[in-house]
Predict the structure.
Amino acid sequence: MEFQTPKGTRDFLPDEMAKRRAVFDACRAVFEKYGFGEVDTPAFESLELLTAKGSLGDEAVKDIYRFEDKSQRKLGLRYDLTVPMVRLFLSQKFPRPVKWYSIGKVWRYEDIAKGRWREFSQCDVEIIGSPLPEADVEVLAVAIECLLALGLKDIEVRINSRKIMDAMAEKLGITRREEVFRALDKLDKRGEREVKKELLAFCSSEQADKVLAFIKSPSKQEELERIIALLPGEYRKYVRPDLSIARGLDYYTGFVFETFVKGFENLGSVVSGGRYDRLIEKYGGEPVPATGFGLGSDRLAEIVNISGVRNPSVFIANVDAPAKARELCYALRALNVAAETDVMGRSISKQFDYAGRKGVSYVVVIGEKEVKSGKAMLRDMATGKEKPVALDARAIAASLRER
Amino acid sequence: MEFQTPKGTRDFLPDEMAKRRAVFDACRAVFEKYGFGEVDTPAFESLELLTAKGSLGDEAVKDIYRFEDKSQRKLGLRYDLTVPMVRLFLSQKFPRPVKWYSIGKVWRYEDIAKGRWREFSQCDVEIIGSPLPEADVEVLAVAIECLLALGLKDIEVRINSRKIMDAMAEKLGITRREEVFRALDKLDKRGEREVKKELLAFCSSEQADKVLAFIKSPSKQEELERIIALLPGEYRKYVRPDLSIARGLDYYTGFVFETFVKGFENLGSVVSGGRYDRLIEKYGGEPVPATGFGLGSDRLAEIVNISGVRNPSVFIANVDAPAKARELCYALRALNVAAETDVMGRSISKQFDYAGRKGVSYVVVIGEKEVKSGKAMLRDMATGKEKPVALDARAIAASLRER
């Protein structure tokens, strides 16, 4: 039998998990501070919902993991967190604007050769009910603050608007808009020459030149300037208009943005989102404006420099004194100190070996002498230094704090 | 289109989610204190792994959500967190004992008429590699401490051992052990008379009487007494031997336990687990002893009395002063205060309405007068009382803390 994860998925061990947890926690703190409430939806939804016309594009729909339950209900693993949140929004009446966030996994049958995973986590934020740029700005500010909270200061948020692009296409008489926008989206990676070649499949050479000239002059775009002006002053420096940003998802209707970390541009956009005013009505209801983003927490966990704050931990090793070691271990835990002791009946050298591999901060060894004298040595595993300490949970806990 | 969740699954709104989050966080803190490290595995595994002989029982295997990916790989949503952690353990070499925990969802096509959900969360703890009762005790102590940390003091942990039961069956010449143990497991719910009737299908009347007499005398069981003796003194009072506990999962081989909260016995066991020394070798490796538990965090979230510590929040309402309101709102957030302002362009009464429904703790109203005077009223939404405050983020933040 194979003990690897299914293709395109992976396990996270404690060190990696601590980093992911730190990203989740940092984002959650920012989301809550901005007045967003956490919601959670099932891992799977009805296939009808996931594949509804106008939500995901045709390519995306193909990548949904689909199955039937025992009663032949057609289901699919969620592809993103936005569609489930929209479904939740439609399931009952909520005071508007709804400000929700959700942290969880999504599944896409991606091409793993492109370095993509088929299961990954997202931290998602949505404001449903407001048509105003104030809501877009709120979403943008949350995205920026999350990255700053993760210690990423060298970031660039590129903003655009589908409305600007549509107006340009209209003016230039371009009919195959989606294809043109997608070609433009590659400008950063492939350069102007390559993109122009691609554009010629969808418009005339003259149109292509005008399009390329247009997107080089983003500064004149009032809508984008207005969004930047509404941002708190200290966040403006991170944001710049970029008319080549198109975003893959078909449901965006206005403001869109992507976010890049300097030095890690190869990761692609780490936070992306925008306004999707037409999505909700496609499920058969009234039109409801909405805006939000998804943050790629797994990717960010790989580049942020936070190790997940771990408190110092102690291993109580023993030579023929397991009861005393256990007693001390539980007494330390009662004082909120992370403590372990041997549960294998091992020799002292093997106990040290385990403590070393596990990466505990301190080891205390207890034998007959220590039990008699009430004193032991506290070994700092990072430096190898030892200092005497009373064989008492309070005394040991105090020594850790002195560190 | 239907906007309900797929049958047997559900959404969690912010208030419910805050309680679940509080349960996850409380358990995580205890797990870390005991030296367990968090791991995360994919939502789906190969169907071969999930249905391997001797892991889940035949009934359980039928309840797995199964599907194929686009390359016809046979997959299934994980049924529990133990099997994926065992698979992770087998995927590479780890220093033993492995002490892992995992928090996540599992999926079972359950009979929802019995009040069960088809998607639910578990907090799982496993010690892999130790054959000693010291490891069982560690697991038991973690379970008890989690419940105490959740404020549940009136709990009863019932412990048993498959070994004791097997020895009894051997001695009494009972051959249909599984059926007999399952009948005994219902003693609490159905009473002795009903259970005896059921037993007669699997053994003689004399055997049934002896079995029932045997399980009424759990105090003589040395193995269980030893486990209780190894527990820290203050935890012993929560634990009692109960030879009727069988546990549904087929893979238990020794110590097993279930945990009930007084007054909520109808929920069934909220934390259950035990020793499964034969599971790992069934995947084709060497025998590796292991012990652990699963905690039903969704059920516990429904009964614990913690609301998820939320810091006070402020809504900055405005009359024709949106820029000032936004500025103040961002300044409060910079001071780590949860703050919101209108993003709908609404009238003051509608802004109040939103703040009230949302349950924010305080509202500050800003209009022309307040902007001019630099003073405003801070309204405590719980009491309706107002007090004057300077129109300054630091002053407002300080007033909240005085509360």
In short: The longest helix of chain B spans residues 14-33. Chain B touches chain A through 94 residues (CB under 8 Å). Chain B has a mean pLDDT of 92. Residues 314-402 of chain B form a domain with the Rossmann fold fold (CATH 3.40.50.800).
